[in-house]
Amino acid sequence: MTENQTTANDENTVKLDQPLKRGEQNIESVTLRKPRSGELRGIKLTELLNLDVVALQLLMPRITTPTLTAQDVAALDPADLTELGVRVASFFVRKSIREEYQTA
């Protein structure tokens, strides 16, 4: 893995304030990856940008590691859901604008 890939993974990994318990497994952090266009099918982009819970429940199983189910997303602490949703929304901002914002 290159340094750029490691950095991208780090900024797209969210440490959960309230870990999820799935059976014997405790999920303490979630890594998101930028969705491809096909993974957005059936979801309105405006709903994702508005952090709509149902839209996030549809998308997150497609782009999270470990894979979160819709039920997992529904069980998230609101602060964790908001943080993950903000990361999802940031994927829809052009890279040059994100970089400009980060250096400002």
TrEMBL record:
Annotated region (Disordered), positions in chain: 1-21
Matches recorded under InterPro entries: Phage_tail_E/E
Basic and acidic residues biased stretches: 12-21
Compositional bias annotation for Polar residues: 1-11
A UniProt-annotated Pfam family: Phage_TAC_7
The protein's name in its UniProt record: Phage tail assembly protein
Taxonomic source organism: Comamonas antarctica
